[in-house]
Amino acid sequence: MANYTAADIKALREKTAAGMMDVKKALDEADGDMAKAEEILRVKGQKGVTKREGRTTSNGLVTARAGDGEGTLVEVLCETDFVAKGERFGALAEQVLTQAVATKAADADALLASTLEDGKSVKDLLDEANATIGEKIEVKRVSRLEGEHVVSYLHKTSPDLPAQIGVLVATTGGDDTTARDVAMHIAAFSPSVLSRDEIDAATVENERRVAEATAKEEGKPEAALPKIVEGRVNGFFKENVLLEQPFAKDAKKTVGKILDEAGAQATGFARYRVGS
What we know:
The protein is of the alpha+beta class and 276 residues long. Among the domains are: 1-41, Ubiquitin-associated (UBA) domain (Helicase, Ruva Protein, domain 3), CATH 1.10.8; 59-194 and 260-273, Elongation factor Ts, dimerisation domain (Tetrahydropterin Synthase, Chain A). The chain contains 12 helices and 8 strands. The protein has helices spanning 6-16, 20-29, 34-47, 49-52, 81-84, 87-103, 108-113, 122-133, 176-189, 201-217, 225-240, 255-261, and strands at 59-67, 70-78, 138-146, 149-155, 165-173, 246-247, 250-254, 264-273. It is elongated. Mean pLDDT is 91; it is low at 47-52. InterPro entries: EF-Ts_dimer_sf, Transl_elong_EFTs/EF1B, Transl_elong_EFTs/EF1B_dimer, UBA-like_sf. Keywords: Cytoplasm, Elongation factor, Protein biosynthesis. Belongs to the EF-Ts family. One of its GO terms (molecular function) is translation elongation factor activity.
C-alpha cells in the first residue's frame, strides 16, 4: 500500500484542486511521492483538456481593478463551486486580471492572445490550469473603462464563494464616493444601458405594441390607452436604464438626479454576474 496520509490527500487536493479519487489514484501510482503525484495529475489532466472543451462552466468569479482613471473587469469561469472557492483558482484569476490591466485588454480574445513574461500566452496558461485542476476554465468576459473617476465594486452572493457580481463605473465630476454608490446600485439593480438613447427604436416600439395589446386584453378604456401605454413604456425604461432607475439609497430620486446633485455625470459602466 502506498505510503501517504489523509493530510497528504487534503494538501494535494488544495494544491491542485483535483477530485479526491483522482488524488488518491495519483498518490497510489506515485507510491506516496507528493511531487510525482502532482506531475501525474498534471499529465492526466493535460490529456483531458480537449474532452473538457464542451463542458459547461457555470461557476467561477469576477475580479476587478480600478484607479488612475481606468479600470478592468474580468470574469473567469470553471465547472464547480469547489474549484471556484479554491486558492489556486483565485490566484489564477488574479494573474489573468494583472495581465489584462498590463495589456489594457478590452475583450477576452485580446487578453487570451496576449503574452506573459515567460513567453506563454494567457490561453496557454488556462490550458495548463485546465490540465492541473481537471476542470474547464475560461475567461468569459473582459471590460475596460477610462474616465475622470473609475471605480470598481465586487459583491459576494454567498459568504463561502468569491465575488459573483462585479461592476465598473466611469464618471466625470463628483468624486469616487458618488461613483462607488452608483456602482453598488448597479450591482443590485442590474441596468442594461446607461441612457435610453442606447436602446434601439425597434425594441422601444415592440414594448409599446406589447403594452397596448396587454392593456386592450385587460379591457382598459380606449381613451385611456395612450396614457397607459406611455406609462408602461416608461416603466420599461426605469427597469433597464441606469439614469432613470430609482436610486438604491433614496428611491425618491433617480440615479441621474443623484449624479446631478453631486455635480457628476456617468460616462459608462460594466456589470457581470457569474454565469449570466
